[in-house]
Every structure is written in structure tokens, then in C-alpha cells.
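Input/output pair, single chain:
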Amino acid sequence: MSRDHGEGVRTLRAGRRTVEVHRPGKVLFPGGGRTEEYTKGDLADYYASVAPQLLPQLRGRPLMLERHPDGIDGPRFMQKNAPGHCPDWVHRVEVTKEGGTVTHVVCDDTATLLYLADQACLTLHRWLSRTDRAGGLDHPDRLVFDLDPAEDDFAAVRRAARLLHELLDELGLPAAPMTTGSRGLHLVVPLDGRHDFDEVRRFAHEVAGFAAAGQPDLLTTAARRSERGDRLYLDVQRNGYAQTAVAPYSVRALPGAPVAVPLTWEQVEDPGVDARRWSLADAVEQARADPWRDLPTRGRALAPARRRLVRLR
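Output:
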């Protein structure tokens, strides 16, 4: 439920909270030609609608906030520390960093989502570990492979995703595909949280290296762009302490407001699908279809997968 107070403020009800969205008519995504225009009010409406599917992907996870107060054509702010004027009811967590600490926002409810929309936070970048798990923030419960093509070539992404999916299946690891809303895909593997970030990233490097060795003309693990040529980069660098990955159902700061959406493996094979197929206009429909419904709720241990990888070598 929402209510406007004149031109400058829109009031939205979220559970027991009331959240004000200031300047809801502010254009964040300019339109033109075939590109739709979207406002801050549109962003707030989207996050309110997708909250039942988005919040389970965010709860307990520190966030890095990608803010565009003047829209995507203005300055970008990558904000780790919670805003100083943040309401008391917004959950925060203080985490250690080299030389100090950072206090991150943790989005546990719809009201916080709406507050972040009011702050022109377009994209939510989440940690791969949670505050509410036994291992704490040092032990991730997600592993992410980022499939980053050299060009805007989703056919190459599709082929790489298929190969990596087959390899992970041989290792006994489920993998959930997700568009990035930009050019590539993320493959998300649920973990049991027993392993620390160093162990997880080491394993991810081993898997990516094995995959690239088998397809050297298609895949690379070279961190330097100059060494990749036209090959797709298997990026595993997000699997580190304090590193983040774009959250499922986050809007990207690109023309047309594309959204990072979970997919089924059948959708990955659909030639009509690419990384920007869904936008703020229709991503809720994809979310309600629950494309990750078959993903196991219990994360996997890495030890059995590591043994299988050794045998494959």
C-alpha cells in the first residue's frame, strides 16, 4: 500500500514499518527509442513486488550498495559502510577489514529494501557468507563461477555454462544458473559452510583450471584481460572474504534496467535468452516461476567433490 504526499514524497507500507520514498518521479533510467524510462518510484515498486523471492537471497548477508543518486548517467557510489542517517531498524553488521572495521547493511525485510530504493541503490552486491550461520562470515555457503565473455556473445556463455555444468555434475555439485543482467552468467553452488574462504577459492581455481585445460580455445583463467584473447574468462575471484557478487533479482545500472535473474537449465539453452533478457518490467514474473525450485536446500561439502576432481585428472 502506498500514499503520495504532494510531489516530493511517497509513503509505502511494509509490514509494521512505513517508509518514505523521496522524489519518486526522479528518473533513474532515462528512456529513448526502444529503451524504457524508469523512476525511483518504479524501482521501489519492483523491489516491493520481488521481495518474497529476493529477501531469502539476502538475509544475513552483508551488502555493498551500488548507488546512483542522479540516475545511471550520473556518478556511481559503491558504498560498503551503512549510511550515517540509516534508520535504527535497519539491520547492520560490523565486520573486520585490514586496519579496522566496516559496518555493512544487512537486508532482512521489505522495509529495508524500500529504504535502499529511496537511497537510489540500484544494485545489491552480497557476500557469499552469512552472519547467522555457525561458521560465521569466514565460511561461505555459496560458491560462484562468473562466466565473463570477451565480447557481448551469449552463445559462448551458453556453451561454457553447459560444459561447466557437466563438470560440476560429475563432481556431485549442483549448480544454479543466473544472468548477470550485463553480459554473462553466474553459476551458484550451495555449500555446507564447513570450509573457509581460502579453501573454497582454492577449489574453485582447481575446477576452473581443469575446465579451461579441457577447452583452451574457449575458456581461460587468465586474470589479465590482455592474456585472454577472445576466450571466455572463468572468474572465481569473488570467492574470497569481503568479496561480493550481484544478488539474484538485483537491478543493474544499465539502460533499460536489466535484472540479474535465476534461470532453469532449460532457459539457459533457449536461444531467445541472453544476459539482459529480463528487466525491471518483467523480472517479477520470472521470480514467481521459482526457477531455482529444484536446487537442494542443503549445501554440499567440498571434500567428496575434491576427490572426484583428483580422479578426473
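The first strand starts at residue 2 and ends at 5. Helices lie at 40-58, 110-118, 154-170, 197-214, 265-268, 283-288, 302-312.
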